[in-house]
Every structure is written in structure tokens, then in C-alpha cells.
Amino acid sequence: MIPATMRAWKVRTPAPVDTHPLQLTNTEVPTPAADEALIAVRTCGVCRTDLHVTEGDLAVHRPHVTPGHEVVGEVVALGNAVTTLAVGDRVGVAWLRHTCGECTYCLAGRENLCPLSRYTGWDADGGYAEFLTAPASFVYSLPGGYSDAELAPLLCAGIIGYRSLRRADLPPGGRLGIYGFGGSAHITAQVALAEGAEVHVMTRGEHARRLALELGAASAQGAADRPPVALDSAILFAPVGDLVPPAMEALDRGGTLAIAGIHLSDVPSLNYQRHLFQEKQIRSVTSNTRADALEFLAFAGRHRIEITGPHYRLDQADRALEDLSAGSIAGAAVLQVG
Ligand SMILES: [Zn+2]
Ligand SMILES: [Zn+2]
Where is the Enoyl reductase (ER) domain (predicted)? Predict the structure, then answer.
């Protein structure tokens, strides 16, 4: 029995999260379009991008949007054109929810660059709610052996981190630097370690440094500190442009820095000799393709990933984002909804 109304958080006017721009509302349960599923949310991960949407670092795409794009839930109704899902399926909804399928990027297997791409919890209402709709072709089946709360962070933190690791071009057995150690980084470190990498973590939080070492990192130091070895590759997870120069300096010749975030504060000027010469590269990471998601979820099915992080109730979503903003969350936070 699907109720008529539900609880859902809405961003009234984007503003610093401690001024309470989010409001918990009672709103109608959405009706799925012909190609969509209606999903009862069980857990929704809390991602830094939700903070960017809430605080206005990302421009408003849908007024009063419901954030949340790491959704694990159960299919409760289907549009009449959907043949790939069934009521009762446990599924995941991630950030990317639409691409055109026809542009040069889509046709080249680079749908993450599609100019008509749309995103859950930004262009359409997301999972900080009891229900959401999602296009069936962007709904994922999930690996077994994980709880709902463990699966949720895999859907953005995991997938984007996985793409970032690929973009960082880490050679087999290589030395990887990770700058910032939140939800995405703690998953990506485990993927890299499972693939044989030597991982060095640079992060501001004492908690996060301890977690990094527990997960198998070879070293953990302060956010801008020099790692003990030259790095083949690095990933910048912290949304802090000031960390680009030290990360570039820490790279070995020919090394690559991938910047994982959707938002980064300004990068200070770089010195060509110190930061770029010797064929060092900087790359951004833009969203992900469905192929990345399927590849990563299959990887998570083969290699157990330990997901750590605090659990909040749905009505505590604003507090979860305040904690994320304050840097006081170790691992990946989730909202327990249903
Ligand atoms: Zn396209
Ligand atoms: Zn995210």
C-alpha cells in the first residue's frame, strides 16, 4: 500500500548549512512516468555534493529540490513501459539519471560528458525522502553480502572514487596518494589496496588518519604534508584547490593527479618547473558512466569493502550535513529511512 504523502527534505534557498536551508516537509508521493520506477527509500548516503547543492556551491537546477543520490530502496511501483525491474526488487539509484544517448560523447562511451545529462538530487528529487522516482535504465541491481546501509555509499562515493582511481592511471603495484579521507576516499583506498597498490593518505582529521592506517594505508599524515615516497598517482578528494600544488609536487616524474570532486575552491598559481614539468598531469573527474557503475558494483561483489560511518535518522539529515561540513564524520554517513 503506497501512502499519498511522505516526508521529504527540501532545499528552500541554498545557504550555509548551519543557517538551516533544509526543511523537512510533508509532500505528495511522486507518480512514476512510463519509463520510471517508484522506489521506497531504505537508506540514503550523505555525500559532499548534497552539501554543495544545499549551500549553493552548485547552481540551483530544480527549485526546492530534495537532495540525496546514494539511494538503496525497494521498487514499489513501475511505469507501464518498464520491463527490466519488478516490484520488490532491492535496487540502487545514483547521481547520473539521464543522458541523451545521441551526442558525440554518448556515442563514444563517454556519457558522463553528455551536455544533456541530469542528476538525482539536483535536477530531480533525490533520496532524502521516503520515496523517489528514477528512470529504470539508471537503476542498478546491487551486490549481495552487504546491508542497505553499507550499499548506499557505494552508489556515489564508491562509483566516483572508482572512476577517479581509473583517471589517476595508477600503474600495477604503484604508489597512490590520497588527499582528503572521507567517504569516497575510504572506499577507493580499499579498491586500490585490493588491486595491489601502496597507499599514502594526506588528511586533516586524526580520526581519518587512524581509519586510513587500519584499512591498510602505508602512511597517513597532515593534509598538505609530503608523503614519505614519490607518488605515481594521486587523487584529490578534499574540495580544496590549495592542495593541488603540494599534490603535484609529491608526484614522481610522469605522475598523474585526478581531482575527484564536482566542486573545488580556486587553485593557486602553479609553477611550471615545480608542479608540471617532467610530464606530470592534472585531470578532472566528471560524474561517471553507467559502465563505471556496473564495473565497480561487480568489483564490490567480488571484494568485500568495509563501509564505516555514522548512521542518522531521516529527520536528522540537516545535522548529518552540518557534521560533514565540520569535518567530524569518519567514513561515509547514511540516513536510515525505511
Ligand atoms: Zn549525450
Ligand atoms: Zn555524491
Answer: 18-335
**Quick one: which ligand is closest to 100's CA?**
1
Indicate whether this model's pTM tops 0.90: yes
Domain membership flag for residue 220 = yes
pLDDT digits (tens, 9 = 90+) for 226-256: 999 999 999 999 999 999 999 999 999 999 9
Ligand found nearest the CA of 153: 2
**Distance (Å, whole) CA 57 – CA 310:** 24
Structural domains in the chain (count): 2
| Domain co-membership, 150 together with 166 | no
Specify whether 80 is located in the same domain as 183. no
- 81 Cα: distance to centroid of ligand 1 (angstroms): 22
Distance between Cα 331 and ligand 2 center (Å): 14
Residues 6+ apart with CB under 8 A from 302: none
Residues 79 and 127 both lie in one domain: yes
Contact status, residue 82 vs residue 76, Cβ threshold 8 Å: no
Range(s) of the domain holding residue 234: 159-284
Provide the pLDDT for residue 170.
98
